[in-house]
Amino acid sequence: MSILDPLQFPAGPDDRVSFHRTELAPILSLYGRMVAAGEWRDYGISALRDMAVVSVFRRTAENPIYRIEKRPKLRLKQGQYAVVGMDGQTLKRGNDLTAVLRVLERKLIRSVD
């Protein structure tokens, strides 16, 4: 009997959904700008059976403040990319990753007094 749940951990790397390099580039670019602004400090990447997730943290020991999710099964319905807030609310969903990430870029824009 195995301790690992087969539903949680796929049998092989081919069963997992992951972000492609072209998808990670805009995510990590946004991450770098938010780190420079002092808003974010850490991130984590998960590749699961039905989705891939980039979790963003304000502090390392906290829960993620945002999750950027990729669910390929939803690409023909609501859109495969989503930004989910800390409370589980979907902030933006669509098939264009850069358009979905704009909801987080708005947090970079601040008024100057």
From TrEMBL:
Pfam families in the record: DUF2794
Superkingdom of source: Bacteria
Protein name per the record: DUF2794 domain-containing protein
